[in-house]
Amino acid sequence: MATTNIILAGFGGQGILFAGKVIAYAGLMEGKEVSWLPSYGPEMRGGTANCSVCVSDEMVASPLVINPDILIAMNTPSFEKFIDALVPGGIAIVDSSLVDAKTDRTDIHLFQVPATQLANEKGLKGLANIILVGKMMKESGFVSLDGIYKGIDKSVPAKKAHLAVSNKQAVELGMSL
Amino acid sequence: MAERVLMKGNEAMAEAAIQAGCRHFFGYPITPQTEVSAYLSKRFPKIGGTYLQAESEVAAINMVLGAASAGVRAMTSSSSPGISLKSEGISYLAGSDLPCVILNVMRGGPGLGGIQPSQADYWQATRAPGHGDFQVLVFAPSTVQEMVDTIFRAFDKADEYRMPAMILADGMLGQMMEPVSFPEGKADTQKEKPWAANGHGFKRKQNVINSLYLNPAVLEQKVRERFERYAQIQKTEQMAEEFMMEDADFAVVAYGASARIAKSAVVAARAEGIKVGLVRPITLWPFPTDALQKAAAQVKGFLCVEMSMGQMIDDVKLAISCSRPVAFFGRTGGIIPTPGEVLGEIKKLAGGAK
Amino acid sequence: MAVVYEKPKSLSDAPLHYCPGCTHGIIHKLVAEVLDELKIEGKTVGVAPVGCAVMAYDYFTCDMVQAPHGRAPAVATGLKRALPDQVIFTYQGDGDLAAIGTAETVHAATRGENITIIFVNNAIYGMTGGQMAPTTLPGQVTQTTPYGRDIHTAGFPVRVCEMLSTLDGVAYAERVSVDCVPNIRKAKAAIKKAFTAQIEKKGFSIVEVVSSCPTNWGLTPTEALQWLRDNMLPYYPLGVYKDKTEEGVR
């Protein structure tokens, strides 16, 4: 049973929930079963935000991810909260522009990507989240690039369809790192 | 089947209501059900439906009462504290034999409680959704797709039995996104409602929608007739899912969101060689007594898992006449139990019974 | 022999349960006459309150819905939204409309809900045996104000027409009385105007009828009417408080 469990976490406003939706939609576009479970409440207003995404060959039972296969962390509190929960052999992708990533774990794959800095430099402001998704794609490969592109097309609201192009650029940038 | 799209549970229920022919929604904002209102406030003006943000939950449920009296499919949506406010209207709807659909996207209580997912309104929904002798149909979907399917069923069954139907969801199901497709050609299965108060036009006798019977003998008779209907419903409308129950020695019983968690725990326990299955009530009233009795004939013990201090466990024990031990594991206040915690309880149950 | 008077067709043959001398019977008759004259009984749904008029569904022959206490304007809202071309009215007392149902009343009014409210103000809770109402006058003795309504502890009466007339959704608000024949005629004209405004989709309309409760006031019917004139009318002046029935509210 191939199931990939992902936690994305960071500050509200960093596009954590959106990045999770892109991944979930990518899985759906490839015919997989998916779930997307957000944290909700006042933390949306600038506090911490996180979401659980499951992509599976079977119906997702618990949509609540406790021990993720993949962690995408965009702030230090989130990194500290979830890094020890990562499964052995799991993948942690952190925005090193924002996260002081210190861990004693040697049984995981830790990738530090200065995503916020890169986004600002490459004219992709606000898309650090998607750069990290690109890096996740490269390191895990559990969905295809085509799937992610379709996921972006499905996730970008119709009124902001023009943003799909820059989102795809951000994925490519993340994959090149 | 149509294309599968990712939707939040709350939005999916709202879209399903539209497709089921509902054009009248009366609500009041409360977390975590707000997307239902937001979705309908966007869609209804474009398709000639009524979205009305009422001055209170009390007003909203009574607007539902008015619209239901007129014979249309009407719905309201709220979360736990708001359902308490609606309980007056729910009692009147039941006492007036009116169909409607009520969504409760449960959050932690009592009082203002919290806004995280909970299942602590089970007793309220199944025992006392308002004052007086009555029941409402209570459905407990556990996936977003099932939320959609349940909306259609709830409207149909409410109309068929002329009684309110409640969908007992929770903040987790309401807020999460999963793939859904909407059944084609199933929309709008409304029947004629010759009892509706919509203006007699001098073509029929006066219709009165009423719950007042000052003569106790008449009131008793009315209630008895309603309970005959309830008895019929208990025979024909029970729904439950049995998961990995074929050879199970133990059964976890859980509904809604906690059934999702329990399912993961059951799969994990099976991987460790424990013969455990899941009985998942889909209707909470009528409670799926038949499925529980069937399980009781087979298993050594039950584990009831809820996001409460233990409410459905009463019905589990009643259903099996306490013929097997029923253990309980629950988290409350907005905490979702983890599959690991439930697995630990399954191991205790399986170990203890050896 | 020429027929000079007939019971309105929109009133049933059921004997009214109201107390001797109660003015509900007059007000029922006026509403029924208006339904007859406007030929709308067949397209009307009435909403009965909780209070003395709770069994209004036995008396009016149009379709009727019995509402929870105070919620008649919300029930009427649901009916009207489902049946925009039918005529929807509520018939409510002072406790129902101006105490427990204040929110529903005010918000139906401010939404400009195209319904008609017949509001019977007799300054007391009649059905439960004569307790203080939101419209009980200062100093007025009731079962729960045995020393007279003390404004220091029980506050002041609500003047409903004055209050609602400040709301943009209200097309028509008039206070009338049924204490004498000329006033009864004016009351009927007001009720007719309110229903007509609804038929013409002008917005929310309310007719407040200052009324008597001989039983709970502890007076004979004629004394009660005199008490009404001497005490209620000075506090609740009759007249039109809002009239946008020409232009409508929106």
Describe this structure in words.
The complex is a heterotrimer of chains A (177), B (354) and C (250). Helix content of chain A is 37%, strand content 21%. Chain A contains six helices and six strands; from the N terminus they run βαβββαββαααα. Chain A has helices at 16-29, 76-82, 115-121, 128-140, 145-155, 163-176; strands at 3-11, 33-38, 48-56, 70-73, 91-95, 109-113. A six-stranded mixed sheet of chain A has the order 2-3-1-4-5-6, sandwiched between helices. The N and C termini of chain A lie far apart (30 Å). In chain A, 51% of the residues are buried. With 354 residues, chain B is of the alpha/beta class. Chain B folds into two domains: 5-236, 3-Layer(aba) Sandwich (Rossmann fold), CATH 3.40.50.970; 242-352, Rossmann fold (3-Layer(aba) Sandwich), CATH 3.40.50. Chain B has twelve helices and 15 strands. In chain B, strands 3-2-4-5-7-6-13 form a seven-stranded mixed sheet, sandwiched between helices. Chain B is globular and about 70 Å long. The relative contact order of chain B is 0.13. In chain C, helix 1 crosses helix 7 (181-199) and helix 3 packs across helix 4 (102-110). Chain C contains nine helices and seven strands, in the order αββαβααβααβαβααβ. Chain C starts with 23 loop residues before the first helix and ends in a 7-residue tail after the last strand. The radius of gyration of chain C is 17 Å and the shape is globular. Chain C has 250 residues and is α/β, with parallel strands linked by helices. A seven-stranded mixed sheet of chain C has the order 2-1-3-4-6-5-7, with helices on both faces. Chain C has one domain (24-243): Rossmann fold. Chains in contact: A-B, B-C. The B-C interface holds B 24, 26, 50, 52, 54-56, 58-60, 62-72, 74, 88-89, 92, 96, 197-203, 206-212 and C 41-45, 47-48, 54-55, 57, 61-68, 71, 74-83, 86-87, 103-104, 106-107.
The overall average pLDDT of chain B, rounded, is: 96
Domains of chain B (count): 2
Spatial gap, N to C terminus of chain C: 50 Å
Largest interface: B-C, 40 and 35 residues
Oligomer: heterotrimer
CATH class of the largest domain in chain B: Alpha Beta
The end-to-end distance of chain B, rounded to whole angstroms, is 47 Å
Number of helices of chain C: 9
| Mean pLDDT, all residues of chain C | 97
Radius of gyration of chain C: 17 Å
Order of helices and strands of chain B: EHEHEHEHEHEHEHEEHEEHEEHEHEH
CATH fold type of chain C: Rossmann fold
Structural class of chain B: alpha/beta
Task: Report strand % of chain C.
Answer: 15-25%
What's the number of structural domains of chain C? Answer: 1
